[in-house]
Structures are given as C-alpha cells and as structure tokens.
Amino acid sequence: MAATQTVAVIGSANASHHSTTIDEAVVISDYRELIRQVHAFVAEQRSRGLDLVDDSFIDWAQTEWDRGKPSPLIGVASEPVPTQQSPLQSLGRLFILDVEYWYSSDTESEFEKRNRRRVRRSVPAATYQLEWLRLSKLDQHYHVDDIVLFRYEDEGEEWISPPHVVVSEGRLIPRSRGAVGCHLRYRPELEPVLVSDAAAHLAAAGLAPSLNPGCLRRPERRDVLLSLWREF
C-alpha cells in the first residue's frame, strides 16, 4: 500500500476478490480531481475498444508502470524485489520435485476434527493460496516465477501435483543449519494428474515422456506438460 495525506493506493492483493484473477488496484481519495482523472482514464480505454493485449500495449504498459512507480520514502524501511516490480510476468523454469506424501495419524485426525473451527465466509474463497516450501542447504534453490511440480506416491499410484509458482526469493531460516524457505502460489481447485497420464501426454506430442526429478530445460516440454492444467 502507498499512501499520502490525500491518496491511498491499495495493491492488487487487497483490492478485491477479482484481484485473484486479474491485476488491479483501488484508489481511495477525497481529492476530486484525482478521481476525475481515474474515471477519464477508464473511459479512454473503453473508447479505444481495448480488449486485446498485444506487443505495443505491453510496451506502453511497461513504460507507464515504470514512470508511475513510487519513489522510496525516507525513513521507511523496505526490501524491494526487482523481479516483482512489474505486473507483466513470464514463465520461469519448470522443476519436478520428489516429495513424500504425509498422512495424519488417527489420533491427529480426530484432534483436528474436534478442534477445527467452523469458518463462515461472507465473500468468495480466494482463487489462489500460498504455501511455504522449506529447502535444505543442498537442495535446488528456486527463483521468482519458477514453477514446481511435486511428484509423490499415494495408494500405490504415482501422482504429479498441479503447478506451484514461486512468488518469493528464498530466505534463510534462523537456526536451521542453512535451510531456506520460499512462498509458492497455487490454485487449490486444480487436481493432480497420474504420472503415467502426464508421460502419455508428452509422448502424444512427440516429446520425451520421462518425468525425472530436476529441471525440464526444453520449453516445448514445459509448455505441453503445463497444458494439462488450463489455468494456474
């Protein structure tokens, strides 16, 4: 959030429920001229019939974004993340990571069931959720926009999770012998896919069907594999 004595601009994460699917912001101000300018800007876009993002629009949007970024405020501590300073993000590297599926014991399940609070939502559930990934010092470290697919075994079948997108750089975890953690963004409604089905999907496209842990370096393999989930 950026605020002055007359204007507050709330970033996408807190703007509204629609922020989970599109980039947006809310302008709060009692300065009528500013509100008029915002309305004029929206009306101009509508008059242009702007409903398609092409290269020229991306160049224009990037220029406007760079020009409008707020300057650091003196006396206010911050830690900018350069790769997150633009709403125009591209796909990063794709990794497959082996994990062990964790089951709650009967005692743990009963305890969670008896102590779970009933949550009453007055607004729709968020489209995206965050998850924390802890990595040891020797593990592969990921960068913002990298995509991680988790491969695991459940009830005798091998599964591969929906895409998890890295949204923060790794941070050292105190007193952890060099371990780091990062945040992942994912869509909870997406379903995992059988590894055999994912391999068949790659083979049908004429690509190598192997899904070994590590980085999928060929962009065409990445794109075909991610096409198993239409939106992520």
UniProtKB/TrEMBL annotation:
Species whose genome carries this gene: Nocardia nova
Protein name (Swiss-Prot/TrEMBL): Uncharacterized protein
Classification of source organism: Bacteria, Bacillati, Actinomycetota, Actinomycetes, Mycobacteriales
